[in-house]
From TrEMBL, chain A:
GO terms for molecular function: D-aspartate oxidase activity; FAD binding. This is D-aspartate oxidase. Belongs to the DAMOX/DASOX family. The gene is Ddo. Residues 1-19 form the signal peptide. FAD binds at T43, S44, V166. Selectively catalyzes the oxidative deamination of acidic amino acids. Suppresses the level of D-aspartate in the brain, an amino acid that can act as an agonist for glutamate receptors. Protects the organism from the toxicity of D-amino acids. May also function in the intestine. It comes from Mohoua ochrocephala.
TrEMBL record, chain B:
Transmembrane segments: none annotated. It comes from the Eukaryota. It comes from Mohoua ochrocephala. InterPro entries: D-amino_acid_oxidase_CS (IPR006181), DAO (IPR023209), FAD-dep_OxRdtase (IPR006076). One of its GO terms (biological process) is D-alanine catabolic process. This is D-amino-acid oxidase. The keyword Phosphoprotein applies.
Length: 341, 348
């Protein structure tokens, strides 16, 4: 198998970063990214792209730490390079505030972000309704810039991008040797995963360039994330809702909640409302599978179900998925050399 | 009671506002007039980035540290008010970088969240081995000065576009007190060899992904002679020039290159940014701020001058503390002239 043909389904942050890891680790592969949507119309484009991990209940914490650490290290290097502005990666400092002291005062990622420490009394004065807080510096991946930068790097390696709606992974078996499923919410239909469910998030993207810090309520529902040109105000976590239409009552509610954390947002301009469905799962599915149908086998690597934490762990899961692709390649080479005997 | 204020930079406007706020109801005849050759956006204060940060050391001048603190606390109190955006006031965090360990500054407990940098953070800044992180404030002159001007105009304060050549010039005709906030040009009104220009130059760029200030220090070359990057609400300021005794307000190509090269070394992504402006100005530098009363012969009357100048590169940082001190001096003048029975209100 001189040049394995790999299809990556999905062009959000997971699909593109996984495709990139595959081309970097196995340059002999010919990779094609297939998706019905590309930036700026993916779920990733709605997200703020903040590196603040979501905790998956059924994934071992060590593995989540590893994913986050790899992702943070990778993006930290880009933020420090000439490519930072083009890639949309930048450092941002701020505060996570709690109305009551959380059970876990030190989250598993506190030593990976920069300068993590509890907030002082003086700092908490800014948040009269909150009694505890954490200050730290982390990274933000602005989209579309980050996705466009990934696409550019992929094209430079010869990766093809095709707009195509894949209805069934089997469609691909005659054209490709290995399929990587990064379809996010689309995996529910694509592979019939009933453990995958949408968590609807509505956000506002506003013009408020004087806001230089992130502010996040520890309950995860209210947050202010300043990006390069716009500030993302959020949000909602509506489990099981498939609606992609913005809800005006929700817009008002998000705006009010964010203004109570940061009153100067009253002066925000150009409010744009967006909705995304977080592809949620009790654990991220990074797994190999061999589909079998009438004697024909199709190796598949799954990398989906990142829910609210896609950006935070994307590079780590992409690395793991690429490694699994390597195993598929070895298995194919093993069986093809056996076939030659 | 007529008061003439000379100077319409941050010092002149804030002193005038502070005095009017404190004394207007107590002295109904109080009339304030502001005279200046330059108004916003053409004052020295307009060119400054607007970052609240004193120099590294107060050289034992505790008075100035107190005025800095009063200013910070005053601004912090306004952070959540509806006026904050109009004032150009917002929180900002960032880095101060050194090539060797240094003592903590006098202002470490004034700002929020002051701490040393971790080794991982220092990786961002090759060549620097020590530093601080803290949260401070930005007060952008090009918003703050118009805001002050509006407040003063609402209060009936009058403005006169005029280059004042002497105290006598404004103090004729019933002016009892002159407030000298003439910054760099105070020497024209009364010679002061201690007042010298600290020439600065900056480049304004569009770099909206930069959310932190980054200020480097070279202890040998002195304050602000080392690159700094300060992100504002509309553009980012690149700087790092402090030339003592240089009166030129022209843009120097050599200084421009020096700022550009050193800032791009500090933050490589800057190489690709768009330059949207350049500016050069003179910091009114003095070993200490001159904030005191002086009795002056004005014709055949004794007049009072309150001097409030020489704030160097920390005018915005110290302005409100000085304005309140100037107001206290004004209050003592009123007392002496029996305009007031006793000083008004509790004060710091």
């Amino acid at each position: 198998m001189a040049s394995p043909k790999v299809a990556v389904v999905g062009a959000g942050v997971i699909g593109l970063s996984t495709a990139l890891c595959i081309t970097e680790t196995y340059p002999s592969c010919s990779v094609t990214v297939l998706s019905d949507q590309f930036s700026p119309n993916t779920t990733s484009d709605v997200a703020a792209g903040m590196l603040i991990p979501h905790t998956y209940p059924d994934t071992p914490i060590d593995r989540q730490r590893q994913w986050f650490r790899e992702t943070f290290t990778y993006l930290f290097a880009i933020s420090n390079s000439h490519e930072a502005a083009e890639a949309g990666i930048h450092l941002v400092s701020g505060w996570q505030v709690f109305k009551s002291t959380p059970k876990e005062e030190l989250p598993f990622w506190s030593d990976i972000v920069l300068g993590f420490r509890p907030m002082s009394e003086a700092e908490l004065q800014k948040f009269p309704q909150h009694s505890f807080g954490q200050a730290f510096t982390t990274l933000k991946c602005d989209c579309p810039p980050y996705l466009l930068w990934l696409e550019k790097r992929l094209k430079a390696t010869g990766t093809q991008m095709c707009t195509r709606k894949v209805a069934d992974l089997w469609e691909l078996h005659s054209e490709y040797d290995i399929v990587v499923n990064c379809a996010g919410m689309g995996a529910q239909q694509l592979v019939g995963d009933k453990q995958l469910f949408p968590v609807r998030g509505q956000v506002l993207k506003v013009h408020a360039p004087w806001v230089k810090h992130f502010i996040r309520d520890g309950d995860g529902l209210t947050y202010i994330y300043p990006g390069i040109h716009r500030v993302t105000l959020g949000g909602t976590r509506e489990k099981g809702s498939w609606s992609l239409s913005p809800d005006p009552g929700t817009t008002r509610d998000i705006f009010d909640r964010c203004c109570s954390l940061e009153p100067s947002l009253q002066g925000a301009q150009d409010i744009e409302v967006k909705v995304g469905l977080r592809p949620s799962r009790q654990c991220v599915r990074v797994q190999r599978e061999v589909l079998s149908h009438g004697g024909v086998k199709l190796p598949v690597v799954h990398n989906y179900g990142h829910g609210a934490g896609g950006f935070s762990v994307h590079r780590g899961t992409a690395n793991e998925a690429a490694h699994l692709v390597g195993e598929c390649i070895s298995a194919l080479q093993g069986s093809s050399s056996r076939a030659k005997l | 009671m007529r008061v003439a204020v000379i100077g319409a930079g941050v010092i002149g406007l804030s002193s005038a506002l502070c005095i009017h706020e404190q004394f207007h109801s107590l002295v109904p005849s109080l009339e304030l007039e502001i005279y200046a050759d330059h108004f916003t956006p053409h004052t020295t204060s307009d060119g400054a980035a607007g970052l609240w940060q004193p120099y590294l050391s107060d050289h034992g001048n505790l008075q100035e540290t107190l005025w800095n603190k009063e200013t910070f606390d005053y601004l912090l109190g306004h952070l959540h008010s509806p006026a904050a955006k109009e004032m150009g006031l917002f929180l900002i965090s960032g880095y101060n970088l050194f090539t060797e360990p240094v003592p903590d500054p006098s202002w470490k407990n004034i700002v929020l969240g002051f701490r040393n940098l971790t080794p991982k953070e220092l990786e961002l800044f090759p060549g620097y081995s020590y530093g601080w992180f803290n949260t401070a404030l930005m007060l952008e002159g090009r918003s703050y000065l118009p805001w002050l001007t509006n407040r003063l105009t609402q209060r009936g304060v009058k403005f006169f576009h005029k280059k004042v050549e002497s105290f006598q010039e404004v103090s004729g005709d019933g002016v009892d007190v002159v407030l000298n906030c003439s910054g760099m040009r105070s020497g024209d009104l009364q010679p002061d060899p201690e007042l010298q220009p600290g020439r600065g130059q900056i480049i304004k760029v569009l770099a909206p992904w930069v959310k932190h200030f980054i200020i480097t220090h070279d202890l040998k070359s002195g304050i602000y002679n080392s690159p700094y990057i300060i992100p504002g609400s509309e553009f980012t300021v690149l700087g790092g020039i402090y030339q003592h005794g240089n009166w030129s307000e022209e843009i120097s190509a050599k200084d421009h290159k020096s700022i550009w090269d050193s800032c791009c070394r500090l933050l490589p992504p800057l190489q690709k940014v768009k330059i949207v402006g350049k500016w050069s100005g003179l910091r009114p530098a003095r070993p200490s701020v001159r904030l005191e009363r002086e009795s002056i012969r004005l014709g055949n009357l004794q007049g009072e001058v309150i001097h409030n100048y020489g704030h160097g590169g920390f005018g915005i940082t110290i302005h409100w503390g000085c304005a309140m001190a100037a107001a206290r001096l004004f209050g003592s003048i009123l007392q002496e002239r029996k305009h007031l029975a006793s000083p008004p209100g509790p004060r710091l």
